[in-house]
Amino acid sequence: MNRKPIFAANWKMNKGPSQTEDFVKSFLSKLQGQDFPCEIVIAPPFVSLAKLADLLHSATAGQNAHAIQIAAQNCSEHDSGAYTGEVSVLMLREFFTHYVILGHSERRSIYGETDAVINAKMKKALETNLKPIFCIGETLAEREGGKLESVLRTQVTEGLKDLTEKDLAETVIAYEPVWAIGTGVTATSQQAQDAHAFVRSLVAELYGADTASRIRIQYGGSVKPNNAAELMACPDIDGALIGGAALEPQSFLEIIRNGTGE
Ligand code: PEP
Q1: What CATH number should be reported for the domain holding residue 19?
Q2: Is 159 within the bounds of a domain?
Q3: Distance separating alpha carbons of residues 86 and 256, to the nearest angstrom
Q4: pTM for the complete prediction?
Q5: 43 touches 56 (CB < 8 A)
Q6: Which of 24, 38, 175, 231 is at 20 to 30 A from 191, Cα to Cα?
Q7: Using one digit for the tens of pLDDT, what is the confidence trace for 108-141?
Q8: Cα–Cα distance between 249 and 23 in angstroms, integer?
Q9: Paired strand residues for 69
Q10: Is the pLDDT of residue 61 over 80?
Q11: Could you list the residue range(s) of the whole structural domain that residue 123 is in?
């Protein structure tokens, strides 16, 4: 199965509109003339979505720039109403947002998002054609306690509960071992490949072999220019979700270049 790799920058709570402008101008000038065989996605904070949308729109209108998709880092499971501080999927669609990161380990551990809440957000996103980047992953204690597979099974089963095959065709999974996020410790390519193959087998159990062979599973956790090629060479790894190393245009670009072998 030929799956198009997807490289997504998760900026977390970094880069307001002016820093977004600096990044995008520099990144686009470095990208110029290069057409990588992958999707490129940037997930800025909510307040920078409008700036990002404007900059990308004028870039693609003016020249044949590599298309860059916009992602949000979160969304509400509700449509509207008395939810102070929340942002709805319809609001996100106004900024040409294509993807939304859901179930990130920081949302799970810091903001207490449960599998049920994440599942409700997945459904809400898919209702409005916002494609979820659905994050899963185990803590170090869970891995060392032999619970890797049971943790991933619960997250996948509960997070994807009641979704259809059609929904899965719009979904990207990001396997992100919690112990590798922002720590500088990367899973070995064997650890990552084994976890990805297991996640794909779970999707096959739930949705059949065809859906499993089509779904893209990104790796996330301290991906850098110097480890991207080895990770991306694994048969079940279809791109990366990148935090720290995607804050600099040059290193994000080098991850894409090394990861796609271009
Ligand atoms: C992330 O935030 O999803 C992530 C993988 O971060 P980092 O690349 O910094 O480990």
Answers
A1: 3.20.20.70
A2: yes
A3: 32
A4: 0.96
A5: no
A6: 38
A7: 999 999 999 999 999 999 999 999 999 999 999 9
A8: 6
A9: 41
A10: no
A11: 6-260
Check if 220 has its Cβ closer than 6 Å to any atom of ligand 1.
yes
Separation between Cα atoms, residue 104 and residue 10, nearest integer Å: 10
Instruction: Examine the residue annotation and report whether 104 is marked as an active-site residue of this protein.
Output: yes
Ligand 1: does its nearest atom lie under 6 Å from the Cβ of 187? no
Is 21 among the catalytic positions?
no
Distance 106 CA to ligand 1 centre (A): 10
CB 121 within 8 A of CB 161: no
Q: How many CB atoms lie within 10 A of CB 79?
A: 12
DSSP letter assigned to residue 67: P
Residue 1 located in a structural domain:
no
Structure tokens at 223: 């991906």
- pLDDT value for 246: 98
Q: Which pair of structure tokens corresponds to residue 15?
A: 């880069």
User: What are the φ and ψ backbone dihedral angles of 4, each rounded to 5 degrees?
Assistant: -75, 120
Cβ–Cβ < 8 Å for 178, 137:
yes
Q: What's the total number of domains in the chain?
A: 1
Does residue 65 carry a pLDDT above 70?
no
How many other C-beta atoms are found inside a 10 Å radius of the C-beta of residue 135?
Answer: 27
pLDDT of residue 177: 97
